[in-house]
Structures are given as structure tokens and as C-alpha cells.
UniProtKB/TrEMBL annotation:
Protein name: VWA domain-containing protein
CDD domains reported for this sequence: vWFA
VWFA domain segment(s): 389-566
The organism's place on the tree of life at top rank: Bacteria
Xref: Pfam families: VWA_2 (PF13519), VWA_3 (PF13768)
Membrane is among the record's keywords: yes
Length: 832
């Protein structure tokens, strides 16, 4: 309890004096005494303590791309000043935020899985409000550049209701050196082979010199230097001619020294080169007879033997994709990851043909298309005929201690991958594991997997990052010395290393010659990209080791890559022997015309038919394995031909009179009927929203009465399909609006009964994270002022709180009580 005007207590003796000498007033009556007491209390104005002592300060630290570097020079000093100036009853809590928000634990913040390309200030404020102690004075202090990518509408109401004023200390950037792309335009569709006009507008300081780069699918197609005009603006126009069909990704980048906001120096877009429906044939053979057989089908065939430029846009306009003896590790990750959605949701077709680099032997086990294929690829234990001794060499250098999503480290995920490797190995296999920094450390000596699997996995999972770099040569020497203790059988080394920090090549060439001359092989999993400093060295290790090379920039995918490599080595088989064929009745699901199958094939990939898949012909050996398997997968179709149709082990099948007819019939089924008269869509990107219009003619009126169309989409490399919501605009016209993340490609399809119309990829051009519109700062300042806060000049003053914040006056309640008693006393006298 707190009295704000105690001097009014001096009135009490005067009241007693008046009551004593003026007895006619009858002030001793109980109701009148009560009224006098209330008058006295109203005058002294007592307050009750509604909040506990001290201030709870929630500091919101902007960790987004646009603010992090600006805050870095001052952040530690500011946080130390706040910590030192707080009182004994005060508490300081820190929320790091960008696209996500997390309450900081401990003395330092580890931003693990935060999306730093967004600034979601409302999310951070919500977190502070949700964790606020309503029994204490609470304030919010924002440390940021002041630009939020999300609307602040309604934020001041929330802060006022929670009684948490928003204060801010903003950092500013030097606008003088800020060059940016104002606009980047190109047509959304162009006929393949026709010129594509690229129109770029840029802005900066007057007469500023700027270097620019223009890329198509990551390849530089234009570069130069230009000078901005007297108004600080410049426009650049150029043309590009692309003959390859599909969607192509164009990007413009401005290169300026000391640019305070480099994120607005880039802009990108997708343009589709249309050439009608086509079939994509990915093949290991320049003169592939499969391509010649497809040419007479009536659809254009895009035959590729180089795969570096493939991406999700390569699938635009394609009816089917055929993979002919191409290993998974040579296909770009973004392309391989897009195939599952392409088949199951966009209605595409996928076929894999046999060969020594297909199916499990090609590393497709646990790949993004594993579940799409109608066959499973890992060998059953009783079908393994050759024991394998495997050495796993793991990089445990300092970079492996970095955090990733889920609160784990890169080392944890590498350990999980190595653990999965042990789980996939067979009963007769053996494994040894080394953790390597500047020297090799034996984690598991060469040990038989049988009976020891759990113990081996437990040891692997306990490996931790210890600093330094990885000495590759030293690790390979130790692994090979250990493998030589194994009895006769296949010997293989998996080297896992940071592609940016793989040290000490040593005499690796001589060592790899020794390994391969003695029947050993070496594969490499590089954490990073093929552009990293040590990528070429790791490529050479894999090439000289007769193994495979994987580059992966997403640590979360490491376990799957380890599994692919393990199955390719230990649980896959290409049988190099002639085998007979046993036809089944399932071929009739593909064609009403019976097929005159050959009597034998020269070899095949051993695999197993999945549940609900069909096999048109099986092997006549002890495995009874599917040779031509197929099924419907969502909106699309998938097939597996496990014997080679080209190259080695295909002589018998290429001499088959029905060779061309078989390929054409299978692919015709794979493509299906994708003509849907009276149905069409139009897509466009409006700011940060994908707008899709669906139009249908009167002939679809009966269909709309029984079913409604759906729209599904996916973003980036995520396989998960999300569903949009339609809004009926008029008869024959639906529209849906999907919010987009900046620069993330979106693909999708409209599905209606048997009709599927694919679209994308599409992406935003603007980057809201680097937008510096004055309206955003004005909105922040208005929100702060409306909440009772504002700009903070001296951070130590943030702890000051007025007493009225903690205490609430009882005067209104006492006044109501006085009026009530006065009326009661007056009524009592009249009734009397």
C-alpha cells in the first residue's frame, strides 16, 4: 500500500474539533463517521500494489540478414550495458529473431535453424507477450534496423492490452554506397530458340560505378561495368537466346565494394522456353538406341548426356523422364528432389532402365525417387554373395561442431549417417570407423557386424567435433591399413570431409593406386558444394579411388547419402549372366496387344516388386525378380525396366524384333492422356503472392456438381505437397492466392478428377528482407508511440518505471463507496 497525499491526514484533528463543538451536526452517527473516513481516504489517495517490484525487460535482437552485420559492432556493448544497469529486482530476457524467434538460453545465442531471410517482428513480440509475467512491469526493447517483412497491423493493440510498451534502438546504414536492383523484367514464356529480352533497372549514388553479372542457371551469360547517371539510376537491356526447352532461372547481381545492404543487389526470375510436350532422356550413351526408338513416337525427345545444368525448371513442359544407366550422384540435387512431386502431383511419368549404374548400384536407394519407383532396391540378406569390409573415415574438425536444425550439430548428422551404414551392412560384413582431425582416432577397429551392431553404433554416435581440420591422407592411410586385415572380399572406404577444409593431400595418388590395385575402392561425401576450395581435390580422390563423389550443402541429408552409398556397395547387385524371362498377364494393363518377349536377357539389376505394383515379366532364376515393373503413383506413373536397353549387356535385347515397339508402348502408357479440352489455368506472381486462375467451359458443369478441383504446390526442394483454397469468382472461373517466400521456387498442379495441369516453377522477384521503404520505419515508430514506448537514447534509462505503473489508485472505488453511503444516510433520515 502506498499513500500519495499523506498531508491530508492533518485534517483529522479538525474533523474531531468540529464534531465535538458542533454537536448539532451529529457527526458521531455511524454512517456519518463512515462518510468522513471515506472523505479522508479520498483526499490522501491510497494506492494498492498491483505489480511486484522490478522491471521485466524483453530485448528483441534482430538476427536477420539485413540487420545482423549492422548490429554486430554494437550489440555486445549494448547487452553488457543493459545487464550492468539493471536493478536487483529487474530481469533481462533476450529473444533472437528473424524469420523465426527463440528465447536465448545462457550467455550466448546460437542461431541454429533460423530463417534469416525474413524479419518477423510480430512473431518476436508475440513470444514476449506470451511469456510475460502479468504481475510485474514489463517492457519490450527492439534492437534492429527497423524494417520488418511482416505487417505490424494490430501490434499496438496487443502491446497496449498486455501493458508492454515497445521501445527501440535502431541502427542505420550508409545510403550513399547502397546500390540496388530496382526492377528485373523478362517475359514469362518464350518460344525456345527465340530471343529473350532482359530489362534491368538499377539505382545508387550519382555517377557510381557498378560491376554487374547476369546468370542463366548459375552460368554467367553477361558481365560488365556501367556508370549510374546524374539521377543515380541506370537501365540495362540485353537479349539471350535459349534453345533448350523448360524453365530457366535468370539472375542479375550488382557487385559494389562496401555496400551496406548487399541483399538488394540481386534479383531473379524464371522464364519458360516452350517447345510443346516432350520426353527427357537422361542417358550415359551418346548414340542411345532408346532415343532412336522414341523418335518415332511423335513426341520430341530431349536427350541429355551432360547433367550439370538440370534443375526443377528442366521439367516444365516434359511429359516423362527416362533415366538410362545414370548414377544418382551425377544428377543435381535440386533436379532429383523435384522428380517425386513431378510424378505424384504434377502427373509426370518416370522410367528407370537397367545397367551397372542404375537402381541400387547407381545409388538410388533412399534417394528422393526411391519411393516413386515400383521396385525396392536393397538386397535381402540371403541374396548377398560377397562379404564387404568397409572403412568409414569421418571428419571431426572444428567446422563439424556447427549447429543445424533440431538442436543438433553437423557431427551428429554425420554420426547418424555412419550409424545407418552399419545398420544396412550384412551378417558377413565387417566395418572399421575412424574420426580424423590432424590425426586418425580409431573409434571402431575392424569388427564383424554380426552380434556387434548395437555396440558399434553407440561408439559412432559418441564422436564429437574436436577442432582443427581434417588430414585426408593420414585418414586414408589408417583406413587402408585396417582394411588389409580383412580376409578376401570387397574392400571399400567412405571418406566424409568438409569440402572447404580438407587438408594434407600428401602422397594420396600413390596411396589410391595401391588401394585400387588391390581391389579396394574409395568414395567421398563432401559437405559443401563442388565450388568449395577443396572440392577438386575430393573429386580426384573419388575418381582415382574408382568410387563416387557426393557434394551436399544440407547436413540434414547426410544420413540418406550414407545410406545410398552403403546400399550401392553392399546391398545391390547387377547380375552379369544370361537369364530367361517369364511373362505375366499384367502386361495387359499397359497394352491390349500381347508382347512377344525375348527368351533371355544378358543381365539385370536384382530388385523386388513393391506392394500394389505390377510386373509384366519376371526372371526365370531363383529370384523371380521383376524385369518390367510399373504402377500409378498419385497423379502420375512410374516404370522400372531392370535389364539394360543400351550399352553393355544389351546385345540380346537390342536384337529383339519388338525392341522399338516395347519402348514406344511402355512410354506411351507412361505419358498417358494429358489433353483436357475446356480446362485451362493462368498463373502469375503479384508481389509476394502466387495467383492462379482456373477457367473451365460449359462441358465441365456436370463435373463441378460432383467434385471440385484442387490445387497442390510445393516450395524449394521440399517434397511435401500443400493444398491451396479456391475462391469462386464467376461461373467457370476459380482463383487461389498463395503467399510466397522470397526467391523460393514454387511448383504445383491443378487436379480435377483425371485431369492434371502442372505449373511452375515461379518465384518472387522482390526481396522484402532488404526493402527499405520509409513507410516501414513510420509504421514501427507509430506502433511504438501508440504502445506507450518510443526511441531510447540512453539504454540504461529503460529500467526506469513510474510508480503509477506498479500502483493503482483506490480513489475511484472510495468515491463510489462515499456516494453510496451518502445516499443511504440521506434515505435513512427521510424514512425515519
Amino acid at each position: 500500500m502506498w499513500i500519495s497525499n499523506p498531508e491530508w491526514f492533518l485534517l483529522a484533528p479538525a474533523m474531531l474539533f468540529v464534531g465535538w463543538f458542533l454537536k448539532a451536526l451529529r457527526l458521531w452517527l455511524p454512517l456519518r463517521i463512515a462518510c468522513l473516513v471515506l472523505v479522508m481516504l479520498i483526499l490522501v489517495n491510497p494506492h494498492w500494489e498491483r505489480l511486484r517490484p522490478g522491471v521485466d525487460l524483453w530485448v528483441l535482437v534482430d538476427q536477420s540478414d539485413s540487420a545482423r552485420d549492422l548490429l554486430a559492432p554494437s550489440l555486445k556493448e549494448w547487452e553488457q550495458l543493459l545487464e550492468e544497469s539493471k536493478g536487483g529486482d529487474d530481469t533481462l530476457s533476450v529473444i533472437d529473431f528473424a524469420g523465426d524467434a527463440t528465447i536465448r538460453m545462457g550467455e550466448a545465442s546460437e542461431i541454429l535453424s533460423m530463417q534469416t531471410n525474413q524479419t518477423d517482428l510480430p512473431l518476436a513480440v508475440n513470444m514476449a507477450v506470451a511469456n510475460n509475467d502479468t504481475r510485474r512491469v514489463s517492457k519490450v526493447l527492439l534492437l534492429s534496423d527497423g524494417y520488418s517483412t511482416e505487417s505490424l497491423h494490430g501490434l499496438n493493440d496487443m502491446l497496449r492490452e498486455a501493458e508492454m510498451p515497445l521501445h527501440h534502438r535502431l541502427v542505420h546504414f550508409d545510403e550513399e554506397n547502397d546500390a540496388r536492383v530496382v526492377s528485373f523484367r523478362a517475359p514469362s514464356q518464350v518460344q525456345a530458340g527465340e530471343p529473350t529480352m532482359l530489362d534491368i533497372e538499377m539505382q545508387g549514388s550519382v555517377n557510381q560505378k557498378i560491376d554487374y553479372r547476369i546468370r542463366r542457371n548459375k552460368e554467367v551469360i553477361g558481365k560488365g561495368e556501367l556508370t549510374l547517371g546524374s539521377d543515380g539510376r541506370q537501365r540495362l537491356r540485353l537479349t539471350d537466346r535459349v534453345f533448350e526447352p523448360g524453365s530457366h532461372h535468370f539472375e542479375v547481381e550488382l557487385i559494389t565494394p562496401n555496400d551496406p545492404r548487399p541483399g538488394n543487389n540481386r534479383s531473379s526470375l524464371w522464364t519458360e522456353m516452350t517447345a510443346g510436350p516432350r520426353i527427357i532422356l537422361l542417358t550415359a550413351y551418346e548414340n542411345d538406341p532408346v532415343g532412336k526408338a522414341l523418335a518415332s513416337l511423335g513426341l520430341p525427345v530431349q536427350q541429355l548426356t551432360q547433367f550439370a545444368n538440370l534443375n526443377e525448371g528442366s521439367l516444365s513442359g516434359a511429359r516423362a523422364v527416362i533415366i538410362n544407366n545414370v548414377p544418382a550422384n551425377v544428377l543435381p540435387g535440386e533436379f532429383l528432389e523435384s522428380l517425386a512431386f513431378y510424378v505424384s502431383e504434377q502427373g509426370g511419368g518416370l522410367a528407370m532402365l537397367g545397367g551397372k549404374y542404375s537402381f541400387g548400384s547407381g545409388g538410388y536407394y533412399r534417394s528422393p525417387i526411391d519411393e516413386v519407383l515400383p521396385v525396392s532396391m536393397e538386397l535381402k540378406e540371403d541374396h548377398k554373395k560377397l562379404a564387404v569390409a568397409m572403412a568409414i573415415v569421418l571428419d571431426r574438425s572444428g567446422s563439424m561442431g556447427a549447429g543445424v536444425a533440431g538442436g543438433r550439430t553437423k557431427m551428429d548428422l554425420a554420426n547418424a549417417g555412419a550409424s545407418d551404414t552399419v545398420e544396412l551392412m550384412g551378417a558377413n560384413d565387417a566395418v572399421t570407423v575412424f574420426a580424423v582431425d590432424s590425426e586418425p582416432h580409431v573409434i571402431v577397429p575392424l569388427t564383424a557386424v554380426t552380434g556387434n551392431q548395437g555396440a558399434i553404433q553407440n561408439r559412432i554416435r559418441r564422436i564429437v567435433s574436436m577442432g582443427g581440420g581434417i588430414f585426408v591422407y593420414t585418414g586414408l592411410v589408417a583406413a587402408w591399413e585396417e582394411l588389409q586385415k580383412a580376409p578376401a572380399g570387397q574392400k571399400h572406404i567412405i571418406l566424409f570431409a568438409d569440402a572447404a577444409d580438407a587438408e594434407e593431400p600428401g602422397k594420396y595418388k600413390a596411396l589410391l593406386d595401391e588401394i585400387t590395385n588391390n581391389g579396394g575402392t574409395v568414395s567421398v561425401i563432401g559437405l559443401g558444394t563442388d565450388k568449395n576450395a577443396d572440392a577438386n581435390f575430393l573429386k580426384d580422390v573419388a575418381k582415382r579411388g574408382n568410387g563416387r563423389i557426393f557434394f551436399n550443402n544440407d547436413p540434414a541429408k547426410l544420413p540418406a547419402i550414407f545410406a545410398q552409398e552403403t546400399v550401392a556397395v553392399t546391398r545391390s547387385a547387377f547380375l552379369e549372366e544370361t537369364v530367361g524371362l517369364q511373362p505375366t498377364a499384367d502386361w495387359m494393363e499397359i497394352s491390349a496387344q500381347p508382347m512377344q518377349w525375348p527368351s533371355v536377357v544378358d543381365g539385370y539389376n536384382l530388385s523386388y516388386l513393391r506392394t500394389r505394383a505390377a510386373s509384366a515379366v519376371n526372371s526365370k532364376d531363383e529370384y523371380h525378380a521383376p524385369m518390367v515393373a510399373f504402377w500409378r503413383r498419385g497423379s502420375g506413373r512410374s516404370a522400372a525396366v531392370t535389364f539394360p536397353l543400351s550399352g553393355p549387356f544389351s546385345d540380346s535385347i537390342r536384337a529383339w524384333p519388338e525392341y522399338g515397339n516395347f519402348i514406344q508402348t511402355l512410354i506411351r502408357w507412361l505419358v498417358g492422356n494429358q489433353e483436357h479440352p475446356g480446362l485451362g489455368i493462368r498463373t502469375r506472381v503479384d508481389g509476394s503472392t502466387l495467383v492462379t486462375d482456373l477457367f473451365y467451359s460449359d462441358e465441365w458443369d456436370d463435373t463441378i456438381a460432383d467434385s471440385t478441383p484442387s490445387i497442390v504446390y510445393t516450395q524449394g526442394g521440399i517434397d511435401e505437397a500443400k493444398e491451396g483454397q479456391w475462391e469462386r469468382m464467376a461461373p467457370g472461373h476459380f482463383v487461389t492466392r498463395i503467399p510466397l517466400e522470397d526467391h523460393t521456387p514454387y511448383r504445383g498442379a491443378v487436379q480435377w478428377n483425371d485431369a492434371t495441369i502442372p505449373f511452375g516453377p515461379l518465384a518472387t522477384q522482390e526481396n522484402r528482407e532488404w526493402d527499405t521503404a520509409p513507410a516501414q520505419l513510420n509504421a514501427l515508430q507509430a506502433t511504438a508511440n501508440a504502445s506507450g514506448g518510443g526511441a531510447v537514447t540512453l539504454l540504461e534509462t529503460i529500467w526506469e518505471s513510474e510508480d503509477q505503473e506498479r500502483f493503482q489508485s483506490l480513489r475511484p472505488i472510495l468515491l463510489i463507496a462515499l456516494i453510496f453511503l451518502f445516499l443511504v444516510e440521506a434515505a435513512w433520515r427521510r424514512l425515519r
